[in-house]
Amino acid sequence: MTDQTTVVGREPGREPRPDGGSTGRPDRPRPLLVGAYAFPHGDATSNRLLQLARSAAAAGSRTLVVNDWPCEVAFPARPPGAAGIDLVTLRIRGRHRLARMSARLARPVRVLRAVRRRGIRRGDVSVVLLPMALMTLGNWTVLRLALRCPVVVDASERHDRRQFRRGWLTPYFVRHRWSTFLATRLVCRATAVSTTLAGYLAAHGLEVLVVPPQVDCDDFLAARPPALSTGLRLLYAGTPGRKDMLDVIVRGISRLTPDQQRRVSLTIAGVTREDADAHSDLDVSVLDGLRADVRFLGRVPRATVLTLLSESHFSMLVRPTGGYAANGFPSKVPESLAAGCPVLLNHTSDLAAHVHDGVEGLVLAGNGPDDVREAIERALRLRDEEWAAMSRAARSRARESFDHRAWRDRVSAFVAAGGRG
Fold it and tell me: Per the omega criterion (within 30 degrees of 0), is the bond before 40 cis?
């Protein structure tokens, strides 16, 4: 097993050497974020950590991100990189189970080795940011003691056993709950994706800052779908699993009149029809009687998702209330708003504070098929100028509530104050 390091990004604020080079050491301590994902745009967690890293660094500084690229995920042809951070990507040669286990166990040591190769020493790191999934005894102990700085955990979800067919027998779920248990005992500060999750952590004595999924609004072009008279374009983008109620969306469409259905198209990006049948709540037999155009695209690149958002009238999301949905915050909502694509959804988590009926989207009365049908009927009655006003409101909301620049002062001040962690 060999460890390769890919360095992307030039660090500002380094101390110059007499020969005009650089020591690699920053002028002042700055945050270190550790990940183990297809960073920075591999999934919702990667996207969240990217924006968190951007907002965690004080003005004039940049967060150092050391990401341990997953062994089971193909490495891209071009090394990953992202503006606004300094990224070191670790890679492991060897994909068998023993290699993956060894890499996980040795991760904190490998991270420290990569940091020191970058010229960073004890005192150069002000705080270590760990996603909850990486909150292990090994990571916390080694990084905390070696760097002598606090650890702040980012909590972006709290699963419940009903999400998994095998409940407590699911290893992922057990690891998730164990990480949460450790966080409530070992750290003093956390960022949380929702007020419900923040309340749970605060009840265990942590200081918590609620930080919803952030976006970079500059990544999104304004949505310009065709006129509504040509048909209503709906989009579901994501992997529904057992958290998103894809079946309810399709059944809601099936309850429209045949003429209404012919005016509706639904694009499902993220899963194939076969995957949706096997790994979501969707009963694909409902599709057979539809007059609406329903397309499954399977997994698509992020650039394709952004294009689909710009071409759609509404993105759709229906979730159960309580449990996982109350603790989480769907990252697809800020992304849709940033693209100027209003959302058609039911209120869960903190969505009611950001999506208002008839303003940034259309809010379902509940999460049943008839609630979906009624909302789509309202969308079909919209005039183009009414939709355009909603699109402008969506983009405004995204910039005010979700853009990482709007969060920088709050997040950087919060993580910098975590000296007790």
Answer: yes
As a whole number of angstroms, the distance between CA 154 and CA 172 comes to 18
Closest CA to 80 of 90, 92, 95, 71: 90
Give the 3-state secondary structure of the chain: CEEEEEEECCCCCEEECCCCCEEEEECCCEEEEEECCCCCCCCHHHHHHHHHHHHHCCCCCCCEEEEECCCCCCCCCCCCCCCCCEEEEEEEECCCHHHHHHHHHCHHHHHHHHHHHCCCCCCCEEEEEEEHHHCCHHHHHHHHHHHCCCEEEEECCCCCHHHCCCHHHCHHHHHHHHHHHHHHHHCCEEEECCHHHHHHHHHCCCEEEECCCCECHHHCCCCCCCCHHHCEEEEEECCCCCCCCHHHHHHHHHCCCHHHHHCEEEEEECCCHHHHHHHCCCCHHHHHHCCCEEEEEECCCHHHHHHHHHHCCEEEECCCCCHHHHHCCCCHHHHHHHCCCCEEECCCCCHHHCCCECCCEEECCCCCHHHHHHHHHHHHCCCHHHHHHHHHHHHHHHHHHCEHHHHHHHHHHHHHCCCCC
Give the pTM. Answer: 0.90
Cβ atoms of 264 and 232 within 8 Å: the answer is yes
For the chain, give the number of residues: 421
Per residue of the chain (421 residues), give pLDDT as tens.
Answer: 556 655 544 444 443 333 333 345 566 899 999 999 999 988 889 999 999 999 999 999 999 999 999 887 888 888 899 999 999 999 876 667 777 778 788 999 999 999 999 999 889 999 999 999 999 999 999 999 999 999 999 999 988 777 777 777 788 788 989 999 999 999 999 999 999 999 999 999 999 999 999 999 999 988 999 999 999 999 999 988 778 999 999 999 999 999 999 999 999 999 999 999 998 999 999 999 899 999 999 999 989 999 999 999 999 999 998 788 889 999 999 999 999 999 999 999 999 999 999 999 999 999 999 999 999 999 999 999 999 999 999 999 999 999 999 999 999 999 998 643 4
